Every structure is written in C-alpha cells, then in structure tokens.
Amino acid sequence: TRDTTPGLSAVIQTGLAATSDASAIMGPGVIGLVHAGMGPESFDAVVATALNAHLADHGSRATLAAVQDAMDTFTYTVTHDLKGPLQGVVGLAGLLSELEGHRLTAEGRDFLGRIESSGEYLATLLDVLLRYSRMGRHGLKRARVDLEAAARTAFAKAQTSLDRPSAQLVLGDSLPVLLADPGLVDALLEALTDNAMRFCRTAAPRVTVRWESAGAHSGTLVVEDDGLGLPEFALQDVFRMFYRHHDQGFDTAGAGLAVVKKVAELHGGRAWVVSREGEGSAFHVHLRVDEVS
User: What is the DSSP code (8-state) at residue 284?
Assistant: First the structure.
C-alpha cells in the first residue's frame, strides 16, 4: 500500500509476539501496532496517534490556516465590539471626576482615577489586538521592498518615539530588495528595532540588521542588539501576545514580538531568538520571499 500511497500513515494488526519485529518487517510508515490482548483504551490511543499523524501529513496546513482565520475574525469582532462600552466607562468616569470630584473623599478620587487609567490601558490593548487581527486578513500584497531603506525608516521611528538620539544602526552588507508585503515587513522591522532600543542597557544601544540568504526564494532577517537579553526559559514565550519578561519600568503592551511571529508565518517562515540574559539578543526571522536584487 505504501508503494501506491507513500504518505499513508499505517496502523498494523500483528500476531507477532514482539511489536519491534513487526515494525522491522513493515518498515517506515508504521505509526502504531495493534496486537492481541490490547485493551480498548490502548487501541483508541494507537488509532488516535495514526489519525493525528495522517492529518499532520495531509491537509493540516489548510486546516490550521482556516482555524487561524476564524480566530482572527473572532478577535477582530470581539475587540471592535468591546471598544464602544469601554469608551463609555472611561468617559463617564472622567465626567464624574470633573463634576462630582469635590464631593468625594481622597480615597474615592483615587479609586476613580484607577478606573480611568485601567480603562485607558485596556483601550490600548484592544487597539493592539485590532491591528494584530487585521494583519494579513486579505492575503499578502507582495511588492518590492528595499530592506535597507525599510530598516533605516524603522530605526528612525523607534529612535524618535523612544528618545534614543545616541542609538546606533549597523547594516549588513548588501541588504537585498525583496518581493514581500511592504506593510508587514515594515511592521516586522518596527517591532524588532523598537524592542532592541526599548530594552537596552545603555543610552546608546546598538542595533544590527543583516540578511542571511538561503537562495533566491528564502532567507533569514537577523536583528541583533546589545540589550538586556533573555533567560532560556523565556525564549519561546517571548513571541506570545502580551508576554512581558522585562516588565518593571518599561511602557509597553507586550505585543511587538507576537507581530514578528505572525509576519514570519504569513510569509511561510518562522521566528526564533538566540539570547543570554545580560548579553543581548539576536532575533531571526526566516521568510519565504524572492530576492529581486
């Protein structure tokens, strides 16, 4: 059967005493073995494993894409619908403070101020979620992207918004022109340069941007910094939405690196980070994009 259907995931029923013998005889492609004396729970587990493997090999990408699209639509709808009531709460709290603040005790005014500040912070998070859910909703719009120009623009924005006039940008040799989604690449670079300059150890952070080509149709963007770095346990979590390892004293919603991960996946790639706490980080973003020059 595997000769005619090479990708088939197989469960084999065997009368052999040792399942290892059956695996050796059947060769690659055997996912599970059903043998005499196997209980219902074990049988179900073997079949479930085979089905999951089959789904992983056949059509899982389409399924995952559909699930992701549904989740993005749900996120967009929920966050959009929450904004109206939240604005009402914040607005009424401000009006109450203005009109009746003099009647309240100091503690009451403090509570009212907390309601306003918490509501404003939640509004910021909702805006972040809305922007995140919109990314790639209508497919990639590929066009020429000058990686060097995009990196310089992103660096200048972060330098201005974070007030880092002494920050340094180092560009790798011959950053290419890519055929990619310009808006998404801009968002990617802005998130990475902002992260590099925000979580820095000095007033003159150094940001390095380079491109490692893997042929004409893919490559890896690397953004290195000399900042605070990350411990090993945070290297995966850092790409989660709203995850903040360096929280104290930093004004951020914690969404930038989730954007990096999503942009990479929309371009058929992935993102990862190499880092040690106190020694800076190197963020790698592999993209399936054509190099125009």
Answer: E
Eight-state DSSP code of residue 215: S
Give the residue-averaged pLDDT of 14-29.
50
For residues 200 and 228, the answer to whether their CB atoms sit within 8 Å is yes
Residue 241 confidence (pLDDT): 79
Lookup: tokens for 258: 């989730």
117 CB-near residues (< 8 Å, 6+ apart)? none
Rounded Cα distance, 132 and 142, in Å: 19
9 touches 57 (CB < 8 A): yes
Beta bridge partners of 13: 34
- The residue assigned the tokens 């084999």 is 12
| Residue 290: alpha-carbon gap to chain centroid | 22
159 close to 207: Cβ distance less than 8 angstroms: no
Question: Looking at residue 83, what is its pLDDT?
Answer: 76
Asked if residue 189 has pLDDT above 90, the reply is yes
